[in-house]
Specification:
The complex is a heterodimer of chains A (267) and B (274). Chain A is 76% helix and 0% strand. Chain A has 267 residues and is mainly alpha-helical. In chain A, helix 1 (3-18) crosses helix 5, helix 2 (21-48) runs antiparallel to helix 3 and helix 5 packs across helix 6 (139-165). Classes of the chains: A mainly alpha (267), B alpha/beta (274).
Chain lengths: 267, 274
């Protein structure tokens, strides 16, 4: 993999963001709304509940981490969709750019934009609502690693889906985090889910993160086997998503779809 | 009409002795296509096509709509996998060393406009990095000047006229000083003066830069003026090959356009190939 083509994808994303406030605003706006909404809900629950639970960390922390995962996925998918919207596939893939360089560029672009989102979330949640993510200690690094990894896997998979089924399938991509959130047990313990949902949850790395987060906040340790399972699952899912993308790309090259990619030519 | 009507009658003809144009400085093969076949299910889009483009040579790829010109270009650019056959750019096999082969290639096509949300200069920088162009800033300035794009450098491509867009696409296509340049109707949106300038640029590039050019166009006067050799395609086959200034006379046509129309109407060219 060569660095210059990867840097080109990043630079293109920077050009787009720099020249368009419309693209920059969503990086801040939606996460800020989530933090404000859940911040006040947490504050209210802290006031009325005598359960001895710090809802700010449990709920607001969970929202922040889950939003981060969604931001990574959306950042990657949006960077990919920029090429769909500008019908740039022919120019891109008729260049020496390799598919791994392209995907690496998308991943780095999404990590960069999601870090901006994370900074905004922390800037609001810490001073305004007193969120202390540092209370999670060292496991926080594992949580972030797993959520970033899972976000990347979802983003690559979503991009493969758009490449395979056409730009109109973009509308199936955006709800993916919302569809997965009940299984990921973001706000409640896994034990409240029915058995079949727990089965699905065990294949999703974020469920280990949120279980671990609640355990740490209740003074229990984050079990290393669970941490390892989450990391391995996230890594496997990245590899699987990458495999899917390459398969879809090769099919698009074989069938000629890549050269004439537009909204209505794909079935 | 006395034109070749099948692959068996395909003719490769030398440049006309009476031609006043200089001989192309063919110093090797820029592109070598051998036994190229592309099938979409039962439909045969390209049927056992073989040809070469020499370094410094401009070859016109002609044919009616649906003849297979764009399919051939897409397979050369590796955005379409051939069903069989081989493609070499210089000495590099495209199917085995795609990135290396494409580093020496570039293209401009009317249907592949550059991202409209980037400015002219940003597009050139972006694609220059993809092609790993050395001294990119200097090369970008050179091309902006060459294609009179300096005043448009900070304008987004999405608001450019089609003629301006064509100039940007051509500037992009020359970023990496390609050994093989594929041009799909490069002057379709240009006024006659701009089109003449572009033809001069491409001719100079081919002669002095040892760049092989594969040029498709429906403008037969342009083809006659620019191309050293033409390939007539119909239904995915090469029907005829030769010097665009000599071919009409050899086949009883007044000019290349008349020959084109005759070939496009050739009954055998309309045979189903499946």
């Amino acid at each position: 993999m060569r660095l210059q083509p990867v840097a080109a994808i990043l630079l293109r994303q920077w050009y787009l963001l720099r020249g368009s406030p419309v693209r920059v605003l969503p990086m801040f706006a939606w996460v800020a709304i989530d933090i404000v909404l859940w911040g006040f809900i947490s504050r209210y629950l802290n006031a009325v509940s005598g359960a001895g639970i710090n809802f700010t960390t449990v709920f607001l922390g969970a929202v922040l981490l889950w939003d981060l995962c969604g931001r990574v996925m959306q950042g990657l998918t949006t960077a990919f969709l920029e090429d769909v919207w500008s019908r740039n596939f022919l120019n891109l893939f008729a260049s020496p750019l390799s598919i791994s360089e392209y995907v690496a560029g998308l991943v780095l672009a999404s990590i960069a934009t999601s870090l901006v989102g994370l900074a905004v979330m922390l800037a609001l949640a810490v001073p305004v609502f007193g969120l202390s993510l540092l209370a999670l200690g060292a496991p926080l690094l594992i949580f972030l690693l797993v959520l970033y990894g899972f976000g990347v896997a979802l983003g690559v998979l979503a991009s493969a889906m758009v490449l395979r089924f056409g730009p109109a399938s973009e509308w199936l991509v955006w709800p993916i985090p919302a569809l997965l959130s009940p299984f990921c047990a973001v706000f409640y313990p896994l034990s409240v889910l029915p058995a079949w949902m727990q089965g699905v949850a065990h294949a999703l790395p974020p469920s280990y993160v949120f279980e671990g987060m609640r355990a740490v906040l209740q003074g229990r340790p984050f079990a290393m086997p669970a941490a390892l399972t989450a990391i391995i699952l996230a890594a496997l899912e990245i590899v699987l998503a990458g495999y899917c993308f390459v398969r879809v790309y090769r099919r698009a090259v074989r069938t000629g779809l890549l050269a004439r990619y537009s909204a209505e030519t794909v079935s | 009409m006395p034109v070749a009507d099948s692959r068996s009658r395909r003719a490769s003809r030398p440049l006309s002795p009476g031609s006043t144009r200089p001989e192309p400085s063919v110093k090797g093969s820029a592109l070598s296509v051998r036994g190229l076949v592309k099938r979409y299910g039962q439909v045969l889009a390209v049927d056992d096509v073989s040809f070469e483009v020499g370094s410094g040579e401009i070859v016109g790829l002609l044919g009616p709509n649906g003849a297979g010109k764009t399919t051939i270009i897409n397979t050369v650019l590796a955005v379409l996998t051939p069903s069989s056959g081989s493609i070499r750019i210089g000495n590099i096999d495209v199917s085995r060393q795609r990135s290396r082969a494409l580093a020496h290639t570039n293209f401009a096509a009317v249907y592949a406009s550059l991202p409209g949300n980037l400015t002219v200069a940003q597009n050139l920088r972006f694609f220059g990095m993809l092609y790993r162009v050395r001294h990119l800033s200097a090369r970008t300035e050179e091309l902006l000047a060459q294609f009179s794009l300096n005043t448009l450098r900070d304008t987004r491509c999405g608001v450019l006229s089609s003629g301006e867009l064509t100039r940007v696409a051509l500037a992009k296509s020359l970023l990496n000083r390609p050994r093989l340049l594929l041009l799909d109707e490069p002057t379709a949106s240009l006024d006659p003066a701009a089109a003449r300038d572009i033809r001069a640029v491409i001719r100079t590039l081919a002669r002095e830069g040892d760049c092989g050019v594969l040029w498709t166009s429906h403008n037969m006067y342009e083809v006659e003026e620019v191309c050293d050799r033409v390939l007539f395609l119909s239904h995915g086959r090469i029907l005829l090959e030769g010097d665009p200034r000599a071919l009409p006379r050899q086949h009883g046509a007044r000019n290349l356009e008349e020959l084109f129309i005759q070939l496009a109407r050739e009954p055998l060219a309309e045979e189903p190939l499946a």
